[in-house]
Design goal:
four-stranded antiparallel β-sheet, 35 strands, about 650 residues, single chain, alpha+beta
């Protein structure tokens, strides 16, 4: 947790959504391979157990599991058969947690989806529950877990100024917090060295430029060492082990991000550690114990690793032999780095958790995440690519109903599913909503339209001020690609997405009224002007950046009106279903309210579901069930006509 996030992640609208499709779709029987119908709840209920981690000393593992339909934290001594429940939340799931030491668990939760996360702690025997940041309207974030200082972590709070986060050192035993630095108003990230000293800050300058500030010790003043436009730069991730140079990702002078070593004194790259010609390389890991850089991470159509360290590579190859056929992630490792918690997954399985001892190469399965899902009944998520009308290569994924392949899939009902963000991307792996749609007989197309992350700077910049324009054309071109290949029945195509994907749904219905038979908008933007005015306060320092990427509400007012669906509802011919969380801090509920009002005033068919205890996406299990049931019924009605 001592890594600074890419600056763009602060304005990403994406979130984990699970989509849906009709439960009993009346397909043309001569075109369908009938699959075993799986209950809706099996796709969208809380996992049996998830989010496994391990204590620093390797004695306990922890996990999240349902308690009264809410995900709570449990711990279990390795070798024991029973677990101890540590939290008893009934209103909302725990948002996340970690082990700061061997005696405590620290976790985050918000209220009703408002994303003002509060930080709490509890001893592993269940005693001494404590609220560390119980301040109204204040959001807490973890900056650094300080693994070598067991009684302290560094957190960020926008307590003093809602727009910015100041770093505080938190004493986990006493609850005392002390400010380490006062954010002057433009700092978006802080980074510590391996001794827990605050040495790096990343700032937004004039709303569009970003600077890295550095100091040799905590007694020195921060000094700016490099300033770049936000389109390029160096993203620090951790110090070299002598605390002198910095390891991070950089696209300075190149199109794709690469992992580099950077000298903060000269403000120059010392060397490139790993670069890929086709994809951004943003992730890099290291061994705290052995003090070596282990691997770089990037994503093609799957997640990939490049190893620097033979020990790490050999360990992972041993693991792969025992878990052949699955992708593998490491979710926890003890301080001695000899006991690992592993998570498997594939496009057809949520996988399982394993505990692995690297010293004796012994592996033990802990639990299947969703044992009620039979991967033999799931569909393959196939990587695809097509060309946009202006010549860009658009990568994506096509999931076909069970029993179909690229050769025999003809005239199928289709759901087009653009992702949120928009500066995010779709990835290969198990997606319950995609599998649910496929199980109900739909082909599902996901595309990484221009602006999707991981494909380099040119592809990223090609999205600037293209909301509802070329970005939308990329989605349309993917839909047409499916029609031209004969896979899609052109009369039975729906479009569905969440956040930016919800916006793309609305714009798809506006721009292509004859292409889509129905649309489902999940917490999507409808009015670019009101959207810009209701962003969370901690996004406001980046407003100028958003103006450059999306559009200036004054200078680009004509364009923003053109790409605001709420002003063009008269062009919509297809029925629409909208779902919204009332407490959404990113896409205000007014975005959906005004769209529904405009549709009704024009006499256009629209269904509306609002949940008062949700925010940007539905987290509570019963609300997920309600949304997907309603969506399923809606698509069944509209695509079976």
């Amino acid at each position: 947790m001592n890594k600074l996030s890419n600056i763009f992640s602060l304005i990403i609208l994406t979130f984990s959504l699970f989509s849906c499709v009709n439960e009993n779709a009346k397909q043309k029987t001569n075109e369908m391979v009938i699959a075993k119908q799986i209950p809706l709840e099996n796709f969208f209920k809380n996992p049996e157990k998830s989010s496994y981690q391990i204590s620093p000393d390797g004695s306990f593992y922890s996990f999240m599991a349902p308690y009264k339909n809410r995900m709570n934290i449990f711990i279990q001594k390795i070798g024991d058969s029973s677990a101890t429940q540590l939290t008893f939340e009934e209103a909302r799931d725990i948002a996340g947690y970690f082990w700061p030491n061997n005696e405590q668990i620290v976790f985050l939760k918000d209220e009703g989806g408002d994303e003002n996360f509060h930080l709490f702690g509890v001893n592993i025997d269940g005693s001494n529950p404590i609220g560390f940041t119980d301040f109204d309207g204040v959001r807490a974030q973890i900056i650094d877990d300080l693994p070598d200082q067991k009684d302290f972590v560094v957190i960020g709070l926008n307590k003093r100024n809602k727009q910015v986060f100041d770093p505080y050192r938190l004493n986990l035993k006493t609850g005392e917090i002390s400010m380490l630095a006062e954010n002057p108003g433009n700092i978006q990230g802080w980074m510590f060295d391996h001794d827990g000293k605050l040495r790096i800050a990343t700032a937004i300058v004039d709303g569009v430029n970003q600077s890295i500030l550095y100091r040799e010790s905590e007694e020195d003043e921060f000094k700016t060492i490099i300033t770049t436009n936000f389109k390029e730069g160096f993203n620090p991730q951790f110090f070299t082990f002598d605390n002198k140079n910095i390891i991070g990702s950089s696209n300075l002078g190149r199109d794709k991000y690469a992992i580099v070593e950077f000298d903060p004194i000269t403000a120059k790259e010392v060397k490139v550690l790993y670069a890929n010609d086709d994809y951004d390389v943003n992730g890099v890991g290291y061994s705290r114990k052995r003090k070596v850089i282990t691997a770089a991470y990037f994503e093609s159509w799957k997640s990939e690793r490049h190893y620097f360290d033979s020990t790490s590579k050999a360990t992972f190859e041993k693991i792969q032999k025992q878990l052949a056929g699955y992708e593998i992630g490491i979710t926890g490792v003890n301080k001695d780095e000899n006991i690992l918690i592993l998570r498997t997954y594939s496009d057809k399985s949520l996988g399982a958790y394993y505990i692995y001892n690297s010293e004796d190469d012994k592996m033990e399965k802990i639990v299947a995440v969703s044992p009620w899902i039979d991967e033999n009944e799931m569909s393959n998520q196939l990587p695809i690519a097509y060309q946009s009308r202006d010549g860009l290569k658009i990568n994506g994924y096509l999931t076909l109903p069970k029993g179909y392949n690229m050769e025999n899939a003809k005239n199928l009902p289709v759901v087009i599913n653009p992702h949120g963000g928009p500066w995010a991307r779709d990835s290969w792996g198990f997606n319950p909503e995609i599998q649910f749609l496929a199980n109900r007989g739909y082909a599902v197309l996901q595309m990484n339209f221009r602006g999707s992350t991981g494909y380099g700077r040119k592809f990223f910049e090609a999205s600037f001020k293209k909301w509802g324009r070329e970005m939308q054309d990329d989605i349309t071109d993917g839909t047409q690609w499916l029609i031209d290949k004969g896979i899609a029945d052109s009369t039975r195509i729906a479009i569905y997405g969440g956040s930016y994907g919800g916006y793309a749904t609305l714009m798809g219905l506006v721009k292509e009224p004859k292409m889509y038979a129905a649309g489902v908008d999940y917490v999507g933007v409808s009015n670019m002007f009101t959207f810009m005015k209701t962003i969370p306060p901690y996004w406001e320092p980046m407003l100028e950046m958003m103006y450059e990427m999306v559009g200036d509400v004054e200078k680009d007012s004509a364009m923003l009106r053109e790409v605001s669906p709420v002003f063009h509802v008269d062009k919509i011919k297809a029925p629409l279903f909208i779902a919204q969380g009332a407490n959404d801090p990113r896409v205000n509920v007014d975005e959906s309210d005004q769209m529904v009002k405009a549709m009704k005033e024009k006499g256009i068919d629209v269904e509306y579901l609002v949940k008062k205890d949700e925010g940007h996406g539905f987290r509570n299990e019963e609300n997920r069930f309600e949304f997907y049931r309603a969506m399923e019924k809606f698509l069944n009605l509209q695509l079976s006509k």
